[in-house]
Amino acid sequence: MEDRKAKGKAVKGSAGFSSAGEDLISKLPDSLISQVLLYIPTKEAVRTSVLSNRWKRVWLLIPEFDLDSSEFSDYNAFVRFMDRLLGFCRKENSCLHKLKLSIRKDGNDQSCVTRWIDFVATPKLKHLDVECPLVKRECLEVMPLSLYVCETLVYLRLHRVSLVSFESVSLPRVKTMRLEENVFANEAGLELLISSCPLLDDLSIVRRSDDIVKVVRVRSQTLTSLSLEAAGWDDDDDEGFDHENSGVLIDAPRLKYLNFEDEVSHSKIIGNLGSLTKVNLLGSFYLWDDLQRRNFFTSISGVKDMKIFWQTSMIMGTILPLPQFRNLSCLEAGLYVNCLQILPAFLESFPNLKSLTLVVLYSSRTEEIRLSLVPQCLLSSLKFVEIKGMFWGEPIMEAARRYEGSPCIGEAIGHVSNHSLLTVKMTLKISRFATGFNWRKSFKTLNPSAQFAMEESFSKEKGKCGEGSAGFSSGGEDLISKLPDSLISQILSDLPTKEAVRTSVLSNRWKSLWRLIPVLDLASSELPDYDAFVSFVDRFLGFYREDKPCFHKLKLVIQKDEDDQHCVTRWIDFAATPKLKHLHVDFGLLPRECMEVMPLSLYVCETLLHLTLNWVSLGSFKSVSLPRLKTMRLEANIYANEASLQLLISSCPVLEDLNIVRRPDDNVMVLRVHSQTLTSVSMRVGGGHDDDEVYIEDFDFEGFAVLIDAPRLKYLTFDYELSPIKVISNSGCLTKVSLLGCLCLWDDLATRNFVASISGVKDMNICYDTFEIIKSIMPLPQFCNLSCLEAAILPDSLGSLPKFLESFPNLETLILHICDCSLTLKEEIRLSLVPQCLLSSLGSVELKTSCCGTPTKMQVARYFAKNAVMLKKLVLHVSTLEEKSVVLRDLLALPRRSSTYRLYYKSPYESSVYENPTLEVTKDSIKPSSCNEAIRGCPGLIEESFSKKKRKTVKGSAGFLSAREDLISNLPDSLISEILSYLPTKEAVRTSVLSRSWKNLWLSMPVLDLATYRHSDKNALHCVTRWIDFVATRKLKHLDVEFGPVMLRMEMEVTPLSLYVCETLVYLRLHRVLLCSFKSVSLPRLKTMRLEANVYANELILELLISSCPVLEDLSIVRIPDDNAMVLRVHSQTLTSLSVGYPTNCYLYFGSENPGVLIDAPRLKNLCFQDEQSPSKIISNSSSLTNVNILGDFDLWDSAAQEGGLQKLDMIRTFFTSISGVRDMKISRDAFQNVKCDGREEIRLSLVPQCLLSSLEFVEIKSATFKVPFGLKLARYFAENAVMLKRLVMHSRFNSVREEDILALPRRSSSCQIVYVSEY
């Protein structure tokens, strides 16, 4: 009886029950039980409802459901279950976080998915997966509009549903999107859905033939992974699909992984793929023609890892040689056995290939293969080769017997192994039916330095370990483990941290060795999730905290979500010890509010040598001490203010290399770089991201600036730097400058000053955008030291090339990229001017084009060949095979100014190593037969050497030979007239007496610049009206008419009506003329207008003239009292600069009338009033106003306003309120006196304004004369009250204030510097 009781006792520890069988789990709270149920399938969770009344409704609290309609008895039962479930959620006001539905329905079943999703698309839904397999198109479920505005959704997968038309999308948190076999309303709907996900990281699209989307457009700034696939189509689907007009357009600058699988679109255009790492081209792959194929493979030529199938290999074989894949290190390619002969030419396009996997597909017919060419990768980089074999076509046994001992695959293996210098491992995977061939015996005849492994699919042999294994003796003894810990840790420090940690499983001896490594190089993506990453780093640093070893390098690449914990700050705070030398912190895309803040200890790490910070926040700090820092990379960070970034840079006394990637919202408008040791600076603007979706293209960079003061700077790079102001000082050591991307500058003056500051460089690289900007200020300053220039230029700008080169008198090497050559030139390029460098120094010219027509290219080549006296080398890049023979023929026919030089052509379709000897063609041997021979015999190089007799020239005879032959007169008339246009008109006319040929040449000049005082006949003044009427109809661009001050009003010349409809006019200046009445104005290109002391028919005429210039940017008006324009009205949508005033010392009498100024210019940035005494001034829409100058006499007073009760103080307040948004203002003494209304004379300096307490840093006091107490009192006021004051400059004229009194002033700011300037 006792034995039976003993057996009946429950074993302690049974899951969920006590020893007495008590249910412990049911006592847990509902929230905890529902959390437990999350980890079991939904079907099993629902089954718990039968356990007891307590469990009946617990499963309804689960926020995640994964349901399949096939698990129910029928579709109606599934619908009833879903309705009950969502009804409970509606009643209890609970929210679902995840919903996955797999629905199988017939054509007669009711459509319920739309309303279900419409309900769950609440602010809490994060994961949605809807799958409706095998549903006909007319039965597809329609997605509700609420789905497109679900702002919490992170993951979205839709399979075989219909996406209707929608007007807006707001999916701010979606990171993963799967769109599989859906039907869309139109192409624009799919494009909008993709582009409206600002955080989209992973996108997969499976297309169907009837999805109504011909062209798939993918545009995303955050996308890193993209997969495009076509669903399995039958022949009927394929016939209904318009292949010819189908396409794929991808613009994703951060894309890393690209996958095409059975992608049938005939056009694929990919741009901005600088980050592309891996590409898979699987299944069927189509491209329309060879040009599209070449463009596509060129766009992906920067990848590092690529996998292609047999169809893709065949397509690539049709356009050999391929573009150079210089970054590709790993390749897996499928090849038909009959295509193995193209393998060497195929591999020639991968010069740095390290790992190669070949999948050889055997067919029933095979020809003998000859492999002779040895590609570059076999000689320099290839280390691992794996060859897999598959049979196709005939029965497998017959194929095995056919290929047993066949030389096809053996030839390929032998070719690779015998010519590859670095191959260390070759793996051959074969079928068991082919093992009859003795591969091991064949391997012995191959490269003995390679290690071969054969893997048989069905039977394997145990391999014996051979002698000489790395780290082991012949007896298998572990030699490495006998090394001391310090040496092993040094060896492990050269491995990635992930690989070093793996050594801990080798033995107990290695278990903790990796912890001695003074380096931590880890990416969060290498661990299962972010929490695991945090745990690992905490443990790693915890070990260092206990044993206190030296920590030299920390590199963290982190991808995290908004909800993940912040740990990097404390990690860096710990690592910033006196031994840390290298710190690299890199975050991916992260909202601004989630950025990690750098600790203060980082700024005083005195051993730090290299610092890289990407997407972090640099808080405020008071001091910086980085005495050894040499390299600093600051990329897309947020700073506390401008001063903190300036302090960080200037406090590195040995800093040499600085790279800054700015973002629009980084709190730094003016970037100041001050360093005495800096030698290299690189700046560009990258994208920012926050809740407001701040992107570069939507950001206004007005007010941004870059100020660089680095006297040892040698290398400067601006890449897409959009700050409109760039000031570089102390640039005497500058050697190389690269101006890439869009270079934004404020105006022509700012552009000229910037170009002048870099004019001492020796090597320069500019893009075509930069060329277009600086073209507007030509002639440029002289770059006397420049010897090497690489420039990109548009075909339409080639006419400006000679004038551009005129600024480089000592240029030796020129590399010219002609971009966008597909554009059709409107007119022939005229290259007539010969710059100095072509006559004295230019020795090498290289012309690079992508798709330029041969005539344009040869015209440029002819210009240099004809005019470059010292030319030694002229290189032309050929872009097409058809162009090759044409270029060769035209190269031989080029005229030669240089006595000896070489002509080259470079083609991407030929090897850069030429086997044929250099061809020398002399002047006597140029015949049609010899030319043809030369073209056939020389694949890539033509050298011509003309031997000319030496001719002595008379010293100082410019343009003449020893026989006094006139060379200038032999030039064409158009070139001579162009030369004369650079002379004053008076001097150009004087050339008419040189000879008969020069008599009328000056008449063809397009420029006339004359002053009336140069002529004795004053009656010519009365003809100006008809002169202007004549030139205003003949493509006039610049008109400047000025009459002297002696002209009376009745003697003023009248401007003709033709002037107001001159559609080519760009610049207009009129001084003391009469503008008559007109009905219409058409000046569509006028950008600058100067109207000085003119008389107008009425006010309306002047207003109409200004408002009818649609591109007017700069307007200057000098008024006179009797100009008939009492109220000046300026209305313009494009005006950026305005100057208004009266002549100095002009006596104004207004009488009963009140002149005024009314300005409405929303883009106005610069405003100047010069002696503007109009009593009324009204300015509206002044939000863009940046700079205001109020100079000379200035007043605000309106008698009519006074009678209406408006006081002068109110008018002054209204005016200054309208300009209160300016950033820079200058006001004269007289203007300040006129607007001061308190009438007090005694000086009272008691109030301390806010700027003195928070921001004022610089004060300069200038005065012609003032009493000593006033000067000292004013200086003392600023010194005692300005908290942030850094510099106070006091000018004293005739020693009115003593220096010792100024320097003895008390200062509230500890960093204030007082400067005394004495003027005599």
From TrEMBL:
Signal peptide: none annotated. Gene3D superfamilies: 1.20.1280.50, Ribonuclease Inhibitor (3.80.10.10). This is F-box domain-containing protein. SUPFAM superfamilies: F-box domain, RNI-like. Pfam families: F-box, FBD, LRR_At5g56370. Residues 22-75, 477-513, 965-1001 form the F-box domain. InterPro entries: F-box-like_dom_sf, F-box_AtFBL13-like, F-box_dom, FBD, FBL13/AtMIF1-like, LRR_dom_sf, LRR_FXL15/At3g58940/PEG3-like. It comes from the Eukaryota. It comes from Microthlaspi erraticum.
